[in-house]
Amino acid sequence: MTDLAIDLQHADLYLDGKQILHDITLQVQHGECIALLGPSGSGKTSLLRMLNGVIGDDLKSAEQRSHIGFVHQDHSLVPNVRVSNNVLMGRLGSLSFWQSLKMQLRPGKKELAAVHAILERVGIADKLFERTDSLSGGEQQRVALARALYQEPQMLLADEPVASLDASRARKIIEVLHATAHEENWTFVVSLHDEALASEFFPRIVRLEGGRIVSDGAYV
Amino acid sequence: MLATAPMSNRARILLSIAIASLAAYLYLGISVRELFPRGNGIQIVQQFAAAALGPEANTQNILMALLVTVKYAVAAITLAFALALPLSVIASSSFWSGCGITCHVLRWVVRSFIALMRSVHELLWAVLLLSAMGLSPISAVIAIAIPYAGTLAKVFSDIIDESSLKAENALNSIGASRWQKFFFGRLPQAIPDILSYAFYRFECALRSSAILGFFGFPTLGYYIKLEFDNLNYAKVWAYLYVLLAMVVVVEYYSMQLRRRFVA
After folding, report:
1. pLDDT in tens, A198-207
2. Most buried of the four, A214, B91, B101, B240, by CB within 10 Å?
3. What is the ipTM of this complex?
4. Crossing angle (nearest 10°) for helices B59-91 and B187-211
């Protein structure tokens, strides 16, 4: 019996008439953690977005996407609301509009405690009620990670999630994400530019170049 | 030989504006000589300027006029804001993204309604409402609120549409609905600029409220006109100074508030 979270067979991706990804074949087991490596413009972000189901031939419904966490490279937070509000937005996909309105305006103690616990894991628990745009770039990136963790997805996709962090902080964050994915049995696909970090945490590394997978396996 | 660089679109537009301005002045026959008063106009200007140094204040009238001016402006801007916010949401293209033709028809109906509201000046609304409702405070408030709601709704909808898409895209990737993306991803980003513009419009509403006095409403404009007609320039200056002070004070406080919201 196959237990695949991702099963791409010879997939191509065209955006605005231009071919971005060529003949992508990628199979990832449920609960498996893999890293994508490759130079800028190699197609890592496009592949992640295709896996997210927002571009490509296999578009996913909002309900399907509510089970997929996505950490964007530029964190993509709402700048002028509290950190707690941004983290709580992780679960919008699983709530009705009125439930989400209530949660944004008057979050319950239980929800705030859960958000606080996640912020503690990423090292910014003291920023719970601060305005998001008053935080540094690195702190905002950790808020974006916390939003994805709060979502409790079945699959977590992260596009250069530690690009704006220093080396030691980046290592710590990847450690937290990797451990959480392992504990919760999430499928975890992350694009990284730091080869040392990728080789330390991920037994399987997929390399992309020019929109093609050029290698798939253990770090060499 | 080097080719001459073609005129850019921007340069063409600026040149067209300059030509149109010049043509307007020539057509109206405006000359620099007309800037200077003639006949007893010089005397009036001299008397009016001299009175500026010795304003005569009737404190009770001034305070009453000031209070009424502020009350009309506050009531009008509150009503305008309450009307403008929902209209601006419906008029924004981002609210309807991914929706069918019916939604876009509704949007254009609302946009046309907004254009109608703001295309008629508050003084003309005042004339219309005075005939219909008489000299009651409600006619002054509505006269200001209608065009202000139109202007606020137009600017608010532009602010909403120009907000960053990033947060909305991030919420899209985790399965948020269209309404969730709009109300939690886009609208909160627009709120500081919306409030900032509303505060600025409050300053404008104060001036409009004062000017409505020329139609008989008991605001600062009423007393300015009254004293002007009676040639009491010293008293006119007292009201003008109060108007100026009021605008400066409100501008100072609204700037503080805007800073707090936008920063």
Report:
1. 999 999 999 9
2. B91
3. 0.88
4. 140
